[in-house]
Design a protein that fits this description.
The complex is a heterodimer of chains A (about 325) and B (about 270). By secondary structure, chain A is mainly α. Helix content of chain A is about 75%, strand content about 0%. Chain A is built from 13 helices and no strands. The longest helix of chain A has about 40 residues, at about 220-260. In chain B, about 75% of the residues lie in helices and about 0% in strands. The model of chain B has no long low-confidence stretch (mean pLDDT about 85). The two termini of chain B are about 15 Å apart. Classes of the chains: A mainly alpha (about 325), B mainly alpha (about 270). The interface between A and B is large, with 50 and 45 residues.
């Protein structure tokens, strides 16, 4: 098992290297000098040159590239060009908000999506199935900033049940939870829609299998057959979708953070774009890609738990 | 085709798409006001009266802006997905056809592209190149190339082993002819079905980028941009963000419904009936 994880992590190295290179190139093809952007148009040439030297922008491009690779490999993403703080410190300060949001959204997605999908599959083509399919299609068609604004209008402005602003005090669990409700529902409903659809179609293909009939014939109660035999076999595609969904989830969390004015990675990346904070952008892209590589690895490992036939040898 | 429209989901979706397409094409005749002309005296009028869907901070008619905004959404979505199908499809087909180490390398590159979250990639590309309509198209195309390469490649792997391909080669046809005349028609339906579903994603991405402030520049009307402006005055004028939101939802839902129905029709295994 440990050997398998190590090998998979090693296999991710070329991907990460390619991602790092792409990030480096992308960030350098921007028109405009970052030093000028930071200091403003009226800065003296001497001040610009001094800042360029400080940021390492005066050195040859390959030297910048090698330094960037070396530092990234050590987990050192450098210092923000704008705030002058280490990037990991800035990211670390807001990461609990982003983790709260994504985990809560995943939970909502799974708690709604899996039972809804199983239920729809069991009642194929009856009204309950049609309703579930329709609702899930609507759910995944909603851009999160639209559903977020609709929820905000209804539950925060009209009925005033939940706060409008999502800047939670992390040390106060009640406040943290209260401000998490609307954003995580916004994000979770899209996820629930995806999971419902995949669970339904995956469950449908499993329902006709021989082992389902055998289990039933042996006298196992139908409920137990569905949840233990059926769902366990239908689970693999669901896990795949949850894993693939991470990219969409990251994009959607940016929009959710903007709508609910929540601190988080998304707000940082938009701020960095506006301020041309290259080092911050580089660091964030690498962190995002690393996250995706790790989630893909976790997805693969989850296969083994769900389906023992998948060998991690 | 008839059976397709008998499927209520596809039929309703198609109607929604056609309505929005008509709105986009007929915007100059349908729109009661100029979409960008400011009229400060009539600012922030609630829906009803002269302004059917209300007016914004600059006194511009929301309905007229939504009608004109449909053009941006459709143009960006259709062009970027057309490019993604052409580029991604060609990459996937050629890669699968050649096979071997070349295929392995190409797919590795596609995996790198896929490991970028789509919206973040779009965000960075537009921020770097500038918020212009062609840059939006480039950004959205980039996010959709890898999926189409994968979709086109998979069937080619088995198709190239089939007898008609071998026969074509034996008759002296060039690889290009075999690939584009004989293999392409076999994978086209699958690619086009995915195209309609990805078009929905493209509409959503364009609206999201505009909402973040990286869309086509004001005063041009875009649905995402209207929601961004409306969001600033959401307490006083909720209609400014609600109506464009409904427009976006209608188009994305319509495209998804059409795509869903098409997929059911081409893949009987997934069919609901």
């Amino acid at each position: 098992m440990i050997f398998y994880i190590a090998r998979r992590l090693l296999a991710a190295v070329p991907t990460l290297w390619a991602v790092l290179t792409l990030v480096f190139v992308l960030v350098r093809i921007v028109p405009g000098d970052p030093a000028v952007a930071i200091l403003g148009d009226r800065a003296t040439p001497a001040a610009v040159a001094a800042l360029q030297a400080k940021l390492g922008l005066d050195r040859p491009i390959w030297e910048q590239y090698l330094t960037f690779l070396g530092q990234s490999a050590q987990g050192d993403f450098g210092i923000s060009m704008v705030t002058n703080r280490p990037i990991l410190a800035d990211v670390g300060a807001v990461i609990p908000h982003t983790i709260d949001l994504t985990l809560a959204a995943m939970l909502i997605g799974i708690v709604i999506g899996i039972p809804a999908g199983v239920w729809a599959a069991l009642h194929r083509n009856r009204w309950i199935d049609v309703l579930a399919r329709m609702l899930s299609l609507v759910g995944l068609s909603f851009p999160v900033f639209v559903s977020g604004i609709f929820l905000l209008l209804t539950f925060a402005l009209h009925w005033r049940i939940f706060p409008v602003i999502g800047n939670a005090n992390l040390s106060d669990p009640g406040d943290r939870l209260l401000k998490l409700v609307l954003p995580s529902i916004t994000l979770g409903l899209v996820m629930a829609a995806y999971i419902t659809r995949v669970t339904r179609s995956s469950m449908l293909s499993v329902l006709d299998e021989d082992y389902m009939r055998t289990a039933r014939a042996k006298g196992v109660p139908w409920k137990r057959v569905v949840w233990r035999h059926g769902l366990r076999n239908a689970g693999l595609p669901v896990v795949t979708v949850v894993g693939l969904y991470i990219g969409i989830l990251i994009g959607n969390s940016v929009l959710t953070e903007i709508v609910f004015n929540r601190p988080g990675l998304g707000k940082i990346i938009v701020g960095a774009l506006n301020q041309r904070d290259y080092t911050m952008l580089q660091g964030l892209m690498v962190i995002y890609c690393f996250l995706i590589v790790v989630v893909n690895l976790l997805t693969d490992l989850a296969y083994g738990f769900i389906d023992p036939r998948v060998k991690h040898a | 085709m008839k059976s397709l429209l008998r499927n209520p989901t596809t039929a309703i979706g198609a109607i929604m798409c056609v309505l929005i397409l008509a709105a986009a094409v007929l915007a100059p005749w349908l729109a009661p006001f100029d979409p960008v002309e400011q009229n400060i005296l009539d600012r922030m009028q609630p829906p009803g009266g002269d302004f059917l869907l209300g007016s914004d901070v600059f006194g511009r008619d929301v309905l007229s802006r939504i009608l004109w905004g449909a053009r941006i959404s459709l143009v960006v979505a259709v062009t970027s997905i057309a490019f993604a199908i052409a580029i991604g499809g060609a990459i996937g087909m050629v890669s699968g056809y050649i096979g071997g180490k070349f295929d392995l390398l190409v797919m590795q590159v596609m995996d790198v592209l896929l490991s970028f979250p789509a919206l973040i990639l779009g965000l960075i590309v537009v921020a770097l190149l500038g918020a212009e309509i062609h840059n939006l198209i480039i950004a959205i195309t980039l996010t959709a190339i890898a999926p189409f390469a994968r979709i086109a490649r998979a069937p080619v792997l088995s198709l190239k082993e089939r007898a008609f391909v071998e026969a074509g080669r034996a008759l002296g046809f060039s690889h290009a002819r075999v690939l584009f005349v004989h293999i392409l028609p076999n994978i086209l339906s699958e690619v086009l079905v995915m195209g309609s579903l990805w078009m929905a994603t493209a509409v959503r991405t364009e609206a999201s980028l505009s909402f973040i402030g990286l869309g086509v520049k004001p005063p041009t009307a875009t649905w995402g941009g209207m929601m961004r402006d409306g969001f600033d005055t959401i307490l006083d004028a909720p209609w400014l963000s609600v109506f464009p939101g409904i427009a976006i939802l209608m188009l994305v839902l319509g495209l998804n419904m059409v795509g869903d129905g098409l997929r059911d029709a081409t893949d009987p295994k997934l069919s609901g009936s």
